Every structure is written in structure tokens, then in C-alpha cells.
TrEMBL record:
Pfam families: ArsA_ATPase. Residues 13-170 form the ArsA/GET3 Anion-transporting ATPase-like domain. The lineage of its organism: Bacteria, Bacillati, Actinomycetota, Actinomycetes, Streptosporangiales. It comes from the Bacteria. Transmembrane segments: none annotated. This is ArsA-related P-loop ATPase. It comes from Sphaerisporangium corydalis.
């Protein structure tokens, strides 16, 4: 396994968040493949019980255990874990109180679910705690079990609260195992070993949520990572044509003559009809390009690295994940 310089050297926990519909899980999966490339071992963690990882890799639903789900380019391995908060709480009860059987009994009568419902901050601590344990875990020889961990995290709107575990448990416990556990988690999440990445589209609402999320993380002193701009469409026309289209400055007659000369229209009427439809398409493309350029300028205000991922013509299937992983690596994000 050869060393490779990336924008995130030293980062071992990559938290991926984004507004719903931006392709957050797809980007998290592709990032895991990119990080594993070249013989590394990466754990991809899901925390929302949606089985999104299983869907993007087209595999059966994941149980609450770490299992290998993909081979990365160059022979690396991607493992996955779908965290179940109830199972995580039972592990916690056994770890800190030695009450495995009692924990099972509590689960049967619904007290575990009751506890995490009335104290949602505790649920987040359990989920982030399981992830942090995977980051810290070592094998019998003292080596890290995983070279990196990627978390498919909650949406941007609640990412700061989800990660800010110390304040979340302040009202639950000021001393004791819960507080100690939260402090350990915070020690990982707030360290230079962690980066929180945002996934967005070049649209006004997800861009604004991304900028708000970056600001919120910084205020909470949590580590901001990069911005992955997903589903980017190429600019298909020359700059001069786009500029003219934005001004609706088209000579339809000249366009119709060009269509006839190229053999793309039969007769003047057909050429005019095609020219009008084509001009409408060009105008729509130009105005979308102007909007996307504006949103890129807005994202630049965050002053963090950003990466552009293409719109996949055939959708985000398994082949598409590997294509995105290569794009992520080529831009230095992994």
C-alpha cells in the first residue's frame, strides 16, 4: 500500500452530511470506496436505520454487525455497519454496568426504547459512540483495525446537534459512565482526526443549508471538512453562446440557415420550427448555467475545499459508485 497525499491526511473519521435529496448516502459510499483504494480497510457506518447503504450497493439489508460489502480499486476492502440504537444501548449497558441479561430484559419490556425516546441526546451518544469506538479500535498487535471510518450521518439541519454530544448529555448526566462516554466520543469527534463533509447540489436551498451548516459547526468548534457538489452537469456551449442566450440575443433566421446547411432540417418551415425549439433549449441551459455559477460563488464563501461530482447518466448504480470514487480520488479528497 503506497502513501498518497490527500486534502485530508490524518483524518480517520469522515462524517458525511447533506440536505435530503442531494445524494448524501451515494457520496458517503463512494468516499468509502475511494479511501479503501490501494489496499486499505474502511468501515462505512449508517446511523439512521434507513438501510441506505444496502440500497446503493444493491445487497440485502445489513444486520447489526460489521461485514465486508465491497472490494475497492487496488484490492482495498469496504466493510459496513448499520447501527441499531437499541443494540448499541444494550452493548453500553453490558460494557459499563455488566448487565447483559438485565439489558435484554429491559429491552423486552420496552424500557430501552423508552429511554432513548425521552432522551434523544442519549440515542445520539450511543450511535456516535459506536462509530468512535471503531475509529479507536486496535487489533492484538496494536494496529488500527480500520484505516478510516465513513459515517453516513443525519441531514445538515441537525448535524451539529447530533455531533455535539457533550452538550446533549449535559442535562442527562454530569458525572458517571454516561458523561465519561460522551467525553470520549467528543474527544474523537472534535479532534483533527475527524472531518465533517457536506453534500450539496447547485440549487439555492441545499447551498444555503450547507453554508448554515458550516457556520453552525464552526460555532460549536467542530471540524469542518469539504463540500462535495453532487450531480454537476457540464457546460455544453461556448461562453459566447451562453452569454448571448442569457440576453435572449438569438438570430433565429441564422440558426435556421445553419440547420439547413448541415442537413438537419427539410425546408424553411422545418428549419424555423427546429431553430425555435433549439433556441428555447439553449436559453434554458444558459439560465441554469448562470444559476449554478451563482451558487458556486456562494459556496466559495465557506472557504473550504470543494469537489465536483458528475451527474451520472445511468444513475447511482454500483458502476456509478466506482466512477464517483475515482473522481473523488482524482480531486485529492481521498
Amino acid at each position: 500500500m503506497s502513501a498518497r497525499d490527500t486534502d485530508w491526511d490524518g483524518v480517520r473519521l469522515h462524517v458525511v452530511t447533506g440536505k435530503g435529496g442531494t445524494g448524501k448516502t451515494t457520496v458517503a459510499a463512494s468516499l468509502a470506496l475511494a479511501l479503501a483504494a490501494g489496499g486499505r480497510k474502511v468501515l462505512l457506518v449508517e446511523v439512521e436505520a434507513r438501510q441506505g447503504i444496502a440500497q446503493v450497493f444493491d445487497i440485502p439489508p445489513l444486520p447489526y454487525e460489521e461485514r465486508k460489502i465491497a472490494v475497492a480499486p487496488g484490492g482495498g476492502d469496504v466493510y459496513a455497519l448499520a447501527i441499531d440504537p437499541e443494540e448499541a444501548m444494550l452493548e453500553y449497558v453490558e460494557m459499563f454496568y455488566g448487565m447483559k441479561r438485565a439489558g435484554r430484559a429491559l429491552n423486552k419490556i420496552g424500557l430501552v426504547d423508552f429511554a432513548t425516546t425521552i432522551a434523544p441526546g442519549l440515542r445520539d451518544v450511543l450511535v456516535t459512540g459506536k462509530t468512535s469506538e471503531a475509529v479507536r479500535r486496535r487489533d492484538g498487535s496494536g494496529r488500527r483495525v480500520y484505516d478510516a471510518v465513513v459515517m453516513d450521518a443525519p441531514p445538515t439541519g441537525r448535524i451539529t446537534r447530533f455531533l455535539n454530544v457533550t452538550s446533549e448529555v449535559a442535562g442527562l448526566a454530569r458525572i458517571g459512565p454516561v458523561k465519561n462516554h460522551a467525553d470520549l466520543v467528543r474527544g474523537v469527534v472534535a479532534s483533527p482526526e475527524t472531518a465533517v463533509h457536506f453534500v450539496t447540489l447547485l440549487e439555492e436551498m441545499p447551498v444555503q443549508e450547507t453554508l448554515d451548516g458550516v457556520k453552525s459547526l464552526r460555532a460549536a468548534k467542530l471540524p469542518v471538512g469539504g463540500i462535495f457538489i453532487n450531480m454537476v452537469r457540464p457546460e455544453l456551449l461556448p461562453a459566447a453562446t451562453i452569454a448571448a442566450a442569457m440576453k435572449d440575443d438569438f438570430d433565429l433566421g441564422e440558426l435556421a440557415l445553419g440547420l439547413k446547411a448541415a442537413g438537419l432540417a427539410d425546408g424553411a418551415a422545418d428549419a424555423t420550427s427546429i431553430a425555435e425549439a433549439l433556441a428555447e433549449e439553449i436559453s434554458e441551459h444558459a439560465h441554469r448555467t448562470r444559476l449554478e455559477r451563482r451558487e458556486k460563488r456562494a459556496l466559495a464563501e465557506a472557504k473550504v475545499p470543494h469537489y465536483e461530482l458528475p451527474l451520472l447518466a445511468d444513475g447511482a448504480d454500483l458502476t456509478g459508485l466506482y466512477e464517483l470514487a475515482e473522481t473523488i480520488r482524482s480531486q485529492g479528497a481521498a
